[in-house]
Amino acid sequence: MPELDEGSIWLRVQMPYSISLDKSVEISKQVRSTMMTFPEVKNIVSQTGRPDDGTDVAGFYNNEFDVILYPEDDWKSHLTKDQLIDQMNTRLSVIPGAELNFSQPITDNIEEAVSGVKGSICVKIFGDSLDYMEGQSNKVYDVLKTVQGIEDLGVIKNIGQPELDIDLDQQKMALYGVATADASAVIEMAIGGKAASTLYEGIKKFDIRIRMPEEFRKTPDDIGNLLVPTQSGSKVPIKEIASITEKTGPCLIFRDDNERYSAVKFSVRGRDMGSAIAEAQDKVDKAITLKKGYNMVWQGDFENQQRATKTLQEVVPISLLLIFLLLFTMFGNLKDAGLVFLNVPFAIVGGIVALFVTGTNFSISAGIGFIALFGICILFGVLLISAFKENLEKVKGGTNVLFRAMKEGVEARVRPVMMTALMAAIGLLPAAMSHGIGSESSRPLARVVIGGILCAMIFSLLIFPLIFARSYRKFDAKYADEKIEENKN
Q1: Predicted confidence (pLDDT) at residue 487 exceeds the cutoff of 70
Q2: How far apart are CA 114 and CA 107, in angstroms?
Q3: Residue range 402-424: average pLDDT?
Q4: Of 93-97, 368-372, 450-454, which gets the smallest average pLDDT?
Q5: Looking at the predicted structure, is the pLDDT value of residue 286 above 50?
Q6: For residue 287, what is the enclosing H or E element?
Q7: Most exposed of 9, 192, 238, 271 (fewest Cβ within 10 Å)?
Q8: By three-state DSSP, how is residue 252 classified?
Q9: Kind and range of the H or E element at 359?
Q10: Any idea what the Cα angle at residue 20 is, between residues 16 and 26, rounded to 5°?
């Protein structure tokens, strides 16, 4: 379905997992200030971290903004919403480490409910190793950057938590006479703190924790210089009995159907989703080969598009078959039913031309317009062929009986055919030209019907009689033979 304009923008800015609350709030203020410089923005509300009710698991790294816009008719810049988003994206992309995602409030909730990822469309890699999956996700990210129309690219990372790994060497500890419990106690007290007593305030109680001052634990080197008591009463630095390394470990582990996954999220703007995803899948399949035990799945709005396409592939042939059966029942022969059915291809051509000229992408709304168009264009054929057949029975004497029957039929039916076509076209014209909220679903349908019905009208009045004449070309000869036989009698 075409994406409906909700009249606002839902912006998500994700920072590295290790960001502090103060820095995240600072960036949130920077984003709000930048967004308010756009005259199209009326107001903006931000949220840092998870929501108040705790229903969405997110850390300080996640900032979401509800951007309220003025009505598009009041925009002095005459930009489209997509152009405005492109300008916002350019202005905000200078923030280091920020991953941007532009959506709409209701759409954002639906997208997350469909795929479980904060993005319109996503590629999930399922498996066991977080490092391997994230490495493959980065490769997918690099491939998707080359696909036209793909925007808001970002890797949903599992790994991103800075860690300090202190690995005690048992041989060195035995050499210096250091007990594992003593070394662990010093490390715990120095970095995390250790409860030494309890403070009571009425019925409330609080732990009193002992912790090294920050200047003694600020860097790995500082921690390595902390002294650990030995059994002989002397002290030895931690760095002499342990290896201290910095590394990045898992921060969040995402699961779907009890399987770990890493994901790449993105949106499609300025291009139809079907062709963009087809190109993206082709490039990714050629560039990425996963190890055994790992698999890749595309989810999100793309799934809805696939389901809708499958439904159309079933509905359209059934509709055409039912129309043909009704025509066959009405005329009682395959020739007349087939002649009327020829209006359908010309109507389809008119609808496709209308979409092409107006730059409208094919969608479910346009598909429904084609189905509605089939019935209207069939009506034109029924009106004309009924008139032709009726006149063939009425015309008596003279030559060129078929030509006169068709001429009188066209003259009799030109007004109802044109009135039907023009009434539908003029009636749908406001919907075809509308750009208000909600017009995204009605506009493709209206444009398809207008283009198709006008093409079907021209075909019915100018081309269809010629095809009828070709099909009934033997009628004049048959009629002449019958007249000769009557004269003899």
Answers
A1: no
A2: 11
A3: 82
A4: 368-372
A5: yes
A6: helix 273-287
A7: 192
A8: coil
A9: none
A10: 95
